[in-house]
């Protein structure tokens, strides 16, 4: 848990340093919702969805496929007909998820950034949970070198 905090801090410093170079894009994440299932083997993320605002548009709908029976370490998805996509990385314990966003720009240039969304989870059945985003999240994605 402490290591995750250190990693997030390091990533934030790197992102801030890169933002000074003019190779960043500021995006906003709203209405994040994720569904998960718990078992003796751990938590499986079943579905993720949210709205993204960035250079390519406002309130672009992003979502993953629905995974009911196939557990995955991470879950990825796309954002409507845009060139954004994402990966949600689960935590080992609790709801400390990491959201990594990618934006494929012209000429093979990719911007990427990662952040920990604030979520509040509640049960939805005996082993299912729904987690909703707290405050809107701002994220500076940078040119991947």
Keywords:
mainly beta, AOC barrel-like, eight-stranded antiparallel beta barrel, 1 helix
Domain module count:
1
Overall geometry: elongated
Mean pLDDT, nearest integer? 82
Q: Please, how many helices? A: 1
Low-confidence stretches: 15-21
User: Based on helices, strands and strand pairing, what is the structural class?
Assistant: mainly beta
How many strand elements? 10
In CATH, what is the class? Mainly Beta
Main β-sheet, spatial strand arrangement: 1-2-3-4-5-6-7-10
How is the main sheet built? 8 strands, antiparallel, barrel
CA gyration radius, whole angstroms = 15 Å
Helix content: 10-25%
Q: Report the end-to-end length measured between terminal Cα atoms.
A: 28 Å
What percentage of the residues does DSSP assign to strands (E)?
over 45%
CATH architecture: Beta Barrel
CATH topology-level fold name: AOC barrel-like
Order of helices and strands: HEEEEEEEEEE
GO cellular component, one term: extracellular region
Protein name: AA1-like domain-containing protein
Main location: secreted
Domain AA1-like: 22-144
């Amino acid at each position: 848990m402490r290591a995750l905090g250190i990693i997030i801090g390091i990533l934030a410093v790197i992102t801030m340093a890169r933002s000074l170079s003019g190779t960043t894009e500021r995006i906003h994440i709203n209405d994040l919702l994720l569904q998960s299932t718990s078992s003796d083997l751990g938590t499986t993320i079943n579905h993720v969805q949210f709205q993204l605002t960035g250079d390519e548009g406002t309130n672009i709908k992003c979502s993953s496929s629905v995974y009911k029976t196939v557990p995955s370490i991470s879950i990825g998805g796309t954002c409507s007909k845009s060139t954004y996509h994402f990966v949600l990385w689960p935590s080992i314990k609790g709801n400390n998820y990491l959201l990594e966003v990618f934006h494929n720009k012209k000429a093979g240039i990719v911007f990427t950034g990662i952040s920990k969304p604030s979520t509040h989870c509640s049960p939805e059945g005996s082993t299912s949970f729904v987690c909703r985003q707290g405050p809107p999240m701002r994220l500076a994605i940078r040119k991947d070198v």
